[in-house]
Amino acid sequence: MSWRENKLIRIKTREGKQGRIKFLAVFFIICLVVIIIRLFDLQVLKGGFYAALAIGQHELYQKLFPERGSIYIVENNNGQQILFPLVTNKDLHMLYAVPADVEKPRETAEKLFELFGWPEDIDMKKVEEELFADISVNLDPIMAAEIKQTRLEKWQAEQQEQEITRLESILAKANDPYEPIRHKLTDEQMETIKSWNMKGLAFKDEIWRFYPERGMGGHIFGFWGFDGDSRVGKYGLEGYFDQELTGEFGEIYSERDAWGNIIAIGNNSLKEKVDGSDLVLTIDRAIQYQSCQALQEYVDYFKAESGSVIVTNPKTGEILALCGAPDYNPDEYNKVKDVSVYNNPAIFDAYEPGSIFKSITMAMALDTGKIQPDTAYVDTGSVYIKPYIIKNYNEKVYGRQTMTEVLEKSINTGSIFAMRQITPKIFAQYAKDFGFGRLTGLELAQEVAGDISNLDKNNEIYAATASFGQGLNVTPIQMIMAVGALANGGQLMKPYIVSQIINSDGVIETFKPQELKQVISAKAAAMISGMLVSVVENSYTKSAKIDGYRLAGKTGTAQIADKNQKGYLGDSVVSTSFVGYGPFADPRFAIIVNINKPQWGKTGEAVAAPVFKKIAKFILQYYNVPYDSK
């Protein structure tokens, strides 16, 4: 081999080595770039995810849920005062299925139906009404019973098959890891299901609000419902005191080693949960129950659309009873078809009060000294306030009448006469002093302020119509507190329904009666009370009279304003009311009854006054009030 060939071989060998070196260099550069990209992805783009995984392995964080506070009333038991729960908590269970693990969907569905029966949302009363709607009342009773039985059995068979098929379809879903089946299972129901030893059924503990007293008025309590994935108090006390009832959440934080054990010298912390506070109400259990029952009885009897009752202690402002109709059961709040039922009519429904407002108008005029109970005027049947003519109910003409007779006969022109003695401006200021047009501050969610803004307008017509309860909107709670001031020597009190808040540490916050304003003098209050006693004793309002007692009261009947346009819904669409208190010498209670859109009756004397009488009679006996000495 020549030296030229040998040199050529050496050159090629050197070039090959350099090529391999370049290839390796490029390869390592590419690997480095890949590693850098991967590190960027892991540490920057996905850093939070893997940090969370690391925290999950090396740190422990758990939220501590406080126990929601209960709601109580005070009851006397052999001379001792005890707390009786109206709202509390109950540990129940939720049944859920893992359909992927269910081996016998049909058999499981049949056993679940056997245990639970119909779906929770079926209203059997409504079902029967629909099934039997075409059965004539004149049909032979035996034949009618047979037809009803046949139809009901057929319906039950069809519904049973539908429900079992529905459950089976849920349990047969392939690869489905979770399907909720039923809430609020008792311990006994859970143990029964466990005894079946069927795969794919499991349970989860749940805490539910429990309202043990039926017929006590759901509007007071509200409910503990869902807002997204969390639970919050809504409406009533549950909504107004949600923060106090909820308490404060706690948390546990600690570091763990590779085996999951807590590191004693690690960064550990504990924030204790604070259980919710308990509420103690001013409500009297017996008066509340009787009031709600009486209201519902007469709403049903007159086929009315809605109604409300409030009973107060006029001397303190304590709410002894508060009911609304239609009512709902807070345990089953999700079954309500119309969410407007949640609104408490006693504090939410602003309405034209009608003639019950005449008692307030007379109290104003008496306080100024411009009239006396025997002050007279001549009624011509109408009053002209350009360009309007205001007439009495049924266009009656009464002639010469005293102010007491104006209340007894509920004369519109007489109320205008009393208002004119004090001028519209002073009338408007008194209305504000009595609390109309602003919130009373009662501790229930969704209170509205009403509307008396018309009284600020520079036109006498607004004060004239307001003097007999038209052209202004008030709430029942405002009306009863204003009338309560007449019973309380002219002193307006703040209403309250919670007497105590008991914190989880045992500290008790007590609420006392709160005086707001001396609206009228004690002398004026005594005079108007005497006039209202005469109304019950001597007028057509005798359906509110109770033998042996002098009670003060006034009826009201007003057309319901059309919310969509000016004017009213029609002569036949009315709001009937009665407000009163007693006994005259030492008032122990004040009651307002409001019943809207009765199908018949149509007057406060016929519809609302009997409710007042029934409740008042019970309270007088319940308190063992001696007969009046006249």
From TrEMBL:
CC terms in the record's Gene Ontology section: plasma membrane
InterPro entries for this protein: Beta-lactam/transpept, Beta-lactam/transpept-like, PBP_dimer, PBP_dimer_sf, PCN-bd_Tpept
Penicillin-binding protein transpeptidase domain sequence ranges: 307-616
Bilayer-spanning residue ranges: 21-40
Major localization listed first in the record, in broad terms: membrane
GO biological process, one term: cell wall organization
Keywords: Membrane, Transmembrane, Transmembrane helix
Protein localization: Membrane
Secreted listed as a keyword: no
Domain Penicillin-binding protein dimerisation intervals: 66-263
Pfam families: PBP_dimer, Transpeptidase
PANTHER family, alphabetized: PEPTIDOGLYCAN D,D-TRANSPEPTIDASE, PEPTIDOGLYCAN D,D-TRANSPEPTIDASE FTSI
Protein name, UniProt field: Penicillin-binding protein transpeptidase domain-containing protein
Protein's organism: Candidatus Buchananbacteria bacterium RIFCSPLOWO2_01_FULL_39_33
